[in-house]
């Protein structure tokens, strides 16, 4: 699997505080009838999506742009420390949403399709959170850069509050499941806070000591299959521990600073017949990054043929399912994108 396939072009777009701070890897023909904006989450740059994105560009008529959270990439021209130096407190979710908006605008401007190209948003991990914020806001604002459809990998938020007949809420997690889903998040949050407001050496201590129980007691949300995938990506994209801690800012904002704020803004689209969603998730992991409510809504959409939305469980895969089952994920995404 090639994580170092060079993009056809690299486009820089504005982010809060830096007019050229965002980096978009471009693959495919600008005249393509489809465009796809892709982004992963923690702790990833553009690298994990390069195999899938470059394949979509090569084997389908798609112009692909791969972005990442600000400060998550690390290049000679723009090392991650530049972000830390002028944004030591990272970026809140509204600011990252602006980054996605500008990335979408830059990708749309790159398109030279004779007719308006269909726009697909493809997101993983924390990018699903921000991607759903961006999508819902762009749809509500009537933006010409709003997505026509969405693909979410391994994370999906609750149904839109105006969704008809929302299924009952999920049953309460067991104590162990609650620990698996939440403990590591607070370790990441407090490590980032220590780096931001006290000292990096304290942040490293908090991070390392806090993760010991995760390893010893096996209470992490992912498993060995995901560790192997991260190592595979890390051969060409291995962040330092200080960089890893800086990339924890989404946890800091989600669980401390903006706790509860995301509940009303991170949802499935209100009208899935207009903006359908493909949700794919791996079954080989301890943590759960979706609600059963959303799974049932997407399954109902598919069963009743009210939209092409669907939820697909991928056996033998974990959090990085598009790396662990690349052919299955590719085929499913292409089928979804081709269906009207």
How would you sum up this structure, described in words?
With 340 residues, the chain is an alpha/beta fold. It is built from 12 helices and 8 strands. Strands 1-2-4-3-5-6-7-8 form an 8-stranded mixed beta sheet, sandwiched between helices. Helix 3 packs across helix 4 (126-141), helix 5 packs antiparallel against helix 6 and helix 5 crosses helix 9 (249-257). The longest helix is centred in the middle third of the chain and has 23 residues, at 175-197.
Features:
8-stranded mixed β-sheet, 15% strand, 340 residues, single chain
Number of alpha- plus pi-helical segments: 12
Average predicted confidence as pLDDT: 94
Can you give the helix content as a percent range? Answer: 40-55%
Radius of gyration: 19 Å
Work out the oligomeric state of the chains in this entry: single chain
Q: How many DSSP E strands?
A: 8
The N- to C-terminal Cα distance equals 31 Å
Q: Please state roughly what percent of the residues sit in beta strands, choosing from under 5%, 5-15%, 15-25%, 25-35%, 35-45% or over 45%.
A: 15-25%
Sequence of strands across the biggest β-sheet: 1-2-4-3-5-6-7-8
Question: H/E order of the elements?
Answer: EEEHEHHEHEHHHHHEHEHH
By helix and strand content, what is the structural category?
alpha/beta
Task: Indicate the overall shape.
Answer: globular
Extract low-pLDDT stretches.
none
Query: Mind describing the biggest β-sheet?
Result: 8 strands, mixed
């Amino acid at each position: 699997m090639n994580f170092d396939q060079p993009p056809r072009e690299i486009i820089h777009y504005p982010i809060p505080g830096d007019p050229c701070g965002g980096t978009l890897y471009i693959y495919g023909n600008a005249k393509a009838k489809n465009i796809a904006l892709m982004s992963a989450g923690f702790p990833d740059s553009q690298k994990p999506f390069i195999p899938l994105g470059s394949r979509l560009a090569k084997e389908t008529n798609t112009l692909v742009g791969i972005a990442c959270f600000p400060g998550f990439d690390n290049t000679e021209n723009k090392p991650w420390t530049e972000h830390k130096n002028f944004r030591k407190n990272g970026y809140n979710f509204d600011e990252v949403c602006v980054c996605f908006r500008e990335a979408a605008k830059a990708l749309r401007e790159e398109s030279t399709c004779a007719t308006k190209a269909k726009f697909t948003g493809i997101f993983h991990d924390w990018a699903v959170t921000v991607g759903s914020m961006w999508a819902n806001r762009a749809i509500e604002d009537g933006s010409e850069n709003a997505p026509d459809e969405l693909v979410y990998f391994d994370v999906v938020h609750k149904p839109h509050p105006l969704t008809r007949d929302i299924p009952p809420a999920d049953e309460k997690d067991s104590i162990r499941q609650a620990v698996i889903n939440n403990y590591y998040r607070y370790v990441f949050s407090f490590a980032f806070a220590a780096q931001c407001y006290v000292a990096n050496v304290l942040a490293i201590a908090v991070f390392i000591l806090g993760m010991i129980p995760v390893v010893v007691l096996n209470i992490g949300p992912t498993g060995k299959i995901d560790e192997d995938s991260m190592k595979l990506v890390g051969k060409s994209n291995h962040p330092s521990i200080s960089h890893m801690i800086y990339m924890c800012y989404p946890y800091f904002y989600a669980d401390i600073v903006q706790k509860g704020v995301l509940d009303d803004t991170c949802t499935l689209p209100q009208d899935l017949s207009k903006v359908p969603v493909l949700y794919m998730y791996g079954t080989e992991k301890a943590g759960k990054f979706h609600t059963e409510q959303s799974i049932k809504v997407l399954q109902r959409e598919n069963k009743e043929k009210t939209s092409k939305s669907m939820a697909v469980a991928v056996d033998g895969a974990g959090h990085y399912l598009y790396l662990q089952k690349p052919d299955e994920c590719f085929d499913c995404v292409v089928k979804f994108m081709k269906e009207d």
